[in-house]
Inverse folding.
């Protein structure tokens, strides 16, 4: 198999090609950062590339819309895809290699293994999206074993995902450092996300209310307001969100709800604008 160059970046589409490129780097004693993505890249993804490049000699970005983390009524078929645009962005960001496996490459016929992240994967997003984090944990573990990076970069916007991956890599003794990268936001505070492309102009106008609500919930919780999270839910509904799955103040490590801020916490929310589900979170340090 021959590794190809597409959009100005070297692209590997199967494990043989991936290992050939990685082998040359390892022989040269170079360190490697992995940035797993599902494509539809934006500035937030590129900030992960930049962090990886700042920490390692080489950066690999995977682009794979993972079917096992989507539920039967979720948006797998309509998830935005732009391979040519993604490859151009990766090249401009200085990424060294794009890994673009097919579903058959990742899940060949007869594939039957999955990883359960335990209780951490069953709350919040795991409650509303049953099986989601098993799919995430399985595909990320495969990517980590395929690339064997020194560092893997993940955004804090998907904070529960970050914690699940930290738990899985720790529990399985995977030899990789998980590097968290701060959420990148639009000028009006909306967290950058591939799913923002689904929003109508009117929904996009309302969407920044999510960040505003989280900021206010954090302020109230830090002052000891016992109904800060409930205020956040009412604020989102009043701002035009159609449904709020959750708005909670949680322990930053266990993600279990807390009433008092005695150690690092996190304000997390998931809410709907039409058919588009937005998630966001903010750190909350003790007063």
């Amino acid at each position: 198999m021959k590794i190809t160059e597409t959009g100005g970046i070297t692209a590997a589409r199967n494990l043989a090609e991936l290992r050939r490129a990685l082998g040359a780097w390892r022989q040269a004693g170079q360190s490697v950062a992995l940035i797993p993505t599902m494509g539809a890249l934006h500035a937030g993804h590129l900030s992960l590339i930049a962090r990886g490049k700042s920490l390692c000699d080489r950066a690999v970005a995977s682009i794979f819309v993972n079917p096992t983390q989507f539920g039967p009524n979720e948006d797998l078929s309509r998830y935005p895809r732009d391979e040519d645009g993604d490859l151009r962005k990766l090249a401009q960001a200085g990424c060294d290699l794009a890994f673009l496996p097919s579903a058959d490459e990742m899940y060949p016929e007869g594939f039957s293994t999955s990883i359960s992240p335990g209780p951490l994967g069953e709350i919040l997003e795991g409650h509303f999206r049953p099986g989601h984090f098993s799919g995430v944990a399985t595909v990320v573990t495969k990517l980590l074993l395929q690339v064997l990076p020194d560092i893997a970069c993940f955004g804090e916007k998907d904070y529960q995902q970050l914690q699940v991956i930290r738990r899985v890599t720790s529990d399985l003794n995977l030899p990789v450092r998980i590097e968290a990268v701060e959420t990148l936001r639009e000028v009006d505070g909306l967290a950058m996300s591939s799913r923002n492309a689904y929003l109508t102009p009117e929904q996009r106008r309302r969407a920044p209310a999510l960040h505003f609500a989280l900021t206010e919930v954090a302020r109230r919780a830090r002052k000891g307001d016992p109904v800060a999270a409930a205020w956040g839910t009412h604020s989102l509904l009043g701002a035009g969100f159609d449904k709020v799955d959750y708005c909670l103040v949680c322990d930053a490590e266990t993600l279990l709800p807390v009433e008092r801020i005695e150690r690092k916490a996190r304000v997390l929310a998931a809410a709907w604008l039409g058919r588009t589900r937005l998630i966001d979170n903010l750190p909350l340090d003790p007063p």
Remarks:
- The beta strands are 4-6, 9-12, 32-37, 58-63, 97-99, 151-155, 177-181, 243-251, 265-273, 276-284.
- The chain has a mean pLDDT of 96.
- Residues 4-181 form a domain with the Rossmann fold fold (CATH 3.40.50.620).
- The longest strand covers residues 243-251.
